[in-house]
Every structure is written in structure tokens, then in C-alpha cells.
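Researcher: Structure for this, please.
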Amino acid sequence: MNRFSTAFIATMLALFTPAALAQNYPAKLVRIVSTQTAGSPADALIRLTAQKMSESIGQPVLVDVQAGAGGVLAAQTVARAAPDGYTLLYTLPGTSVTTPQLMKNKPDERKDFTPIIVVSKAATCMLASVSFQPNTVKEMIAFARANPGKLAYGSNGIGGGYHLEMEMLKHKYGLDITHVPYKAGVDALMATVSGTLPIAYAPCAPALAQARAGKVKILAVLEMKRLPELPDLPAMGEQIPDYEKIAGGNDIYGPAGLPQPILKRLHAELDKALAAPEVRARMREISFFPDGTALEEMAAQRRKDVEITARAIKAAGLKPE
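Model: Predicted structure, C-alpha cell format:
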């Protein structure tokens, strides 16, 4: 009897090992908690991705929007969830890279989450009004040096990626340029179109539309090298020695302690969904592009992003609140 009981208990325990759980995964609805505003381009992208994933795994995949508070609310929801693969976080790298350095008592990607996949990278442009004399980043730097305190630029808000990009540039070259924060990069773009601001940072899709209409000039794409999808636009890395890019795009994380078998299954299923022609087409429409970062490289890349962002935050003079 004792031998039977021992064998039975051992068998039951084996059914709950990570490998066994992964074999049965997923057995119910998967929830993706999103920091992106409902109806936004990034929201449309994750909903289409979730649909494709659902078709593959045979289970519903729900997108649960919890926007606001810099992504902290959504991050807390996922950080507190069981590490079973049924609650995931869809967010900008800023939520996991920048926010932990600017807020106290907040979830920290390095301790509270398991990186799963980089959904996409975002194409962002530095642009100028058509009346602004400089046509390149180098010319803009020279102009700013010759005219300290006379230039202003628009961004997507204090502590946002666009703000940190310019503050790094200002620190590197000793520039005096006033920051004008907006709620979104598109708002900064329209201020440049109207001539209210000489310089702005904005997503490339709307910036390109305005540039083709002759209403703004694009000085650079915020990348180390030219994007294959936008070969005619100069990259910031071509013009600025030792340029360091602030992380942009969208990531998916799970709670800390996600078992490796479930992590690998999730990565494979999401990678498959993101490769669907409809998803790739939607990315192109909103100036997002496939990233191609391997699973084992994602955590290392985000650690590097934390280091770069820390330097940018220091350059901007920002303190945790």
C-alpha cells in the first residue's frame, strides 16, 4: 500500500512539472494586458496579432487595455499574475526601461517580468519646419551652437523617448534648445507643420506624409543605419558619431518565473503570428517594422537599453518621483 501511495504521489507531481504544464498549454483563454490606448495604431497591431495567435493555439486571446499612468497599472497587473503563460504584458520598452528609473515603487522589468518577444521596432523621425534653414542634423547642431537659446523642439512628453533622444544630443554637443512637451509625437509634428516649432520628433508614417506634401523636412530617422523599408531617409547614426538609440517599438513580457517550456511556446506562437502577411502589412502602415531579435538576445538588449536610458535621464536632469 505504501509503495502504491508513493508511486501515485510521484505520478501526480510529475503532471505538474513545467514540461508537463507546457504540453497542456494553453488550455484556456490567454490575456494580453496592453498599455496602448484603445484605437491607436499599436492597439490595432496587437489585436490583429492576438487574432492570429488565437487561430493557431485554438484558444481565445483577449487584449485587455489598461492604458495610463505611464504603463504602471498594466505592468502591476502582470507582475502580480501567476507565471503560467495566461497573463502577458504588451508595452513600449519605455514602460520596462524608462519608467522604473523615473518612478518609485514601480514594477521593474529586470526583476518582475520575463521577456518573451520584441513585437516590432518603431520608425521615428527628427524633422524640421520648411522655413528652418538647416537640412541635416549636423547643420542643425551648428545652427544651435551659433544661436543658443533661440531654438525649441517638440516631443511626446517629459521622460518620453523623443525627449530623451534630444536631451542626449544636447548633452553631447552642449546645445541650448528649449523643450516643448506635447501629449503625442503627432501633436509636435503638427506644430512644426504650422511653423510654431522649428524642430520635432514624430512617428515616421505621419511625418513622411507631411514631408511628401512639402510641409516639413525630415532630418533623420532615429536608427544606427538606414532602414531597408525607408532607404531614402538618412539615419541618425550616419550623421552622429557614437549615436545611441533610445529603445522604441513594442514588447511582450510575462510575469517573472515563467517556465522555459511555456516561454518557448509563447515565443514561437507570437513569432508565427507576427509573420502573418496581414500583420506585416499593418506594421508597414503605421511605420512599425519587424525587429528580428532572438529570444535569448532580448533580455541582453533591454539591459543595454537601461544603461543608455540612464545616461539620457541624467542628461535631462530628471529625478525619480
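Researcher: Any notable elements?
Model: The first strand starts at residue 30 and ends at 34. The chain has a mean pLDDT of 86.
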